[in-house]
Structures are given as C-alpha cells and as structure tokens.
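Page 42, continued from yesterday. The earlier attempt failed because a stray header line got pasted into the input along with the sequence. Redoing it now with the clean sequence only.
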Amino acid sequence: MADHQEASVTLPSDPASVSSARTYVSDVLAEWGMPRDAETSDTVRLIVSELATNAVMHTRGQSPTFTVDVRLERDEQLRIGVTDSHPRYPKRLPAAVQQDNGRGMVIIRCLTVECGGSLSVRPTSEGGKTVWIALPWTVPVPQV
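This time it went through. Structure tokens are written below.
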C-alpha cells in the first residue's frame, strides 16, 4: 500500500448528504482494506455521521457545502476531516436529559478517544474550519 492515500468528496449542506458522507467514507475504507463489518468501521461511520450532521445543522445556512477528507498515512493513522465554511467552532453543549440534540461532539470525542485517537479543530484559510479525527489504522497490512 502507498505511504499516503487520500480521498475527498464535497456535498451540499443538506440532511440527505449525511448518509452520502457516511457511505462515501465506508466505501473508501473498504477499498483500502477495512472490512465493512469491522467494529472500527461501525465506529467511523457513526463519527462521520455526527461530523456531517454538525456541518449541516449548525452552520445556520452559512455553509452551502461541506467536504469530507479521508487520509491514510503510512498504514498507521486514519485521518478524517469535515470542513465547512462557517467560522464558529463546535461547542460542547450542556445536554439536558430530555434534550434530543447537542451531544454530537461529546459522542465524537468519546468514540475517538475510545479507539485510541484524537480530535482537533483547525481554521481554514477561507474563514471556516475543519474538524479532524485521527485514529490508529487497525487493519492488518497484507504481506507481499
């Protein structure tokens, strides 16, 4: 496998795009050797769903699209970033027991840490931001 692989897709900021983002990442990871039924694959799909939902729901119409970047570095680290053009960084909201939303970043952070990864938010040169997760790549590399 190459030292570095990348894939990217830009989608409209529409609720239907959340499923498209999840499917896209799942297809890329399968192409790179991660079985679709692997526990890590399920976790990544949930994280991507939450990141994409945040990009759609919390940009208040100020980001017409969002981009999902998937990177595999040296068969060691998987990085997934979701970029939107809204300048406001995500915030961890206090979630009341009856509240139906506001827990996305908590879920993302917990799942990422549980997998031995990290989460970061970086500004873009256009004034938006990218929320990145980095996870260890746990798929065995085939021996040639």
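Notes: Residues 21 and 52 are 7 Å apart (CA to CA).
Reminder to self: strip header lines before submitting.
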